[in-house]
Amino acid sequence: MARLMVIAGGSWQCPIVKTAKEMGHYVVCTNLYEDSPAFKFADASVVINVLDKEGNLKVAEEYKPDAVLTEQTDIAVPTVAYVAEQCGLKGIGSDVAGRFTNKFRMREYASSAGIPMPKYRLCHSVDEAADFLSDMETCIIKPIDSQSSRGIHIVKTRDEIAEYFDDCVQYSNADRAILIEEFIDGTEFTVDGVKTGSEYVVTAISQKDHYEYNPSVANRLVFTHHNDRYDYDSLRSENTRLIAAMGLPFGLTHTEYKYRDGKFYLIETAARGGGTKISSDITKLVSGIDCNRLYLNMLTGGSEEIIRGSKHDCAVLGFFDFKPGTITDIKGVEEALKQPGVHDIKLEVKVGDTLMQAQDDRSRCGYYILFADSLKELCDRERRLKETVKVITK
User: What pTM was computed for the model?
Assistant: First the structure.
């Protein structure tokens, strides 16, 4: 049994804590809120901001973990790297963590390796961003080091930059600045993978759709092994080259691309698994690899052999989009959970809540995960689920 420290304790950290407990490990979890969901699965919990490196180091000095980690959250990655360094534990290092979490550094590093990407600029003022925008029709502004699509806006004019600048910059933690980029108007993809000391394997690729009213927020990710319109073998190769160039020694990865004019353009990459149970559940459904268990083995001296179990041809991670208003009733969730191919459903709302359109990833009202062995079967199961689950508003 190892003693583990998990930094961040939201919903998406619950799977890694549960897996660690199933493997017989002792877990202490830190997060900002007393009611953090992962706390109830841990052996011990400490309320502290995941951005507080020194505070988390003090927790580590008290509990003396054998390993420190995070999963499915970007903002904790630098803290994990720092604590691991200070305690002499296995980690990816602060320099590598910075490459994956500071979007400007990410761009600079990947660009030097020849990875295709949109034009970009680091900006500390509206004027700097407006100057960059003057050379192109549409741009996107984003915080330097945030997550969950918070503070991201598509802009076409200087007035729009001025309108959204403060909202964007408030989510930048390392520097009071934003990143402005050329907007790539193309199909978006995610690529998840796992890196051991000896090899890197792509575990899942999805094609993304977005809400019509907010193209910055995804509402559907379809995971398949192949795609008739896009060369997934080429995408796997490009992503493998990217991770090698970024110098990640081990761990999970989650990368986003957009396809335009025959190229996959890097949007961003992360040294952690995909959120909303992508790395913990979906990658296992479509690759047969238990990535969380493998990641924990890497940290605790266990076997790093990549073992593949049974898998499915496809899966979908979908996000509900019900009519805005006050919720008067919720129907069909328990019935839908019994349907073939339904892996998980979770609604983040309850009767009496006011339902609004999603402004970022965290404000989506709920998700579902389905699997199947053909796209037709997957679409049939998805249609049946949507006919069953109802959120009534007025």
Answer: 0.93
